[in-house]
TrEMBL record:
It comes from Streptomyces aurantiogriseus. This is VOC domain-containing protein. One of its GO terms (molecular function) is lactoylglutathione lyase activity. SUPFAM superfamilies: Glyoxalase/Bleomycin resistance protein/Dihydroxybiphenyl dioxygenase. PANTHER family: FOSFOMYCIN RESISTANCE PROTEIN FOSX, LYASE, PUTATIVE-RELATED-RELATED. Keywords: Metal-binding. InterPro entries: Fosfomycin_Res_Enzymes (IPR051332), Glyas_Bleomycin-R_OHBP_Dase (IPR029068), Glyas_Fos-R_dOase_dom (IPR004360), Glyoxalase_1_CS (IPR018146), VOC_core (IPR037523). The keyword Metal-binding applies. Residues 4-128 form the VOC domain. It holds the Pfam family Glyoxalase.
Amino acid sequence: MTLRTGHIGLNVTDLDRSLAFYRDVLGFVLIGEGKEEGRRYAFLGDDGHPVLTLWQQAQGPYDGARSGLHHLAFEAGSIERVRAYETALRAYGVDFAYDGVVAHGEGAASGGLFFHDPDGTRLEISVPEGVEGAPAPGGDSAPTCGFF
């Protein structure tokens, strides 16, 4: 039996703020939503397929010290797309874990951006190749996808 991810659901504290971030900054398309008070949500996707659901039901920001989601990683089609996202994210004023594009490890061809959404959820946009020569975080913070 083979499984693949259908979509990811994230609890958020402010649906309007999170929807603006994921739609306007990361480029997801709103494909459905619930507006009933106390049951607000937004389905976001690509080509009509749900990728992410935002549920307005969190009472506080993301807590990386609790069990559950460590981070959510998106794969871009090219390093140029990663750099375009970097520009949009900087304009939005996101909190980056590292300054710009970094390699997944010393000498790795893969890597990308590591940052936080408006509720502090850890996010990654990366590519499997094209990052050759980029710095890799060292010490206790490597590998980048595990310890940010």
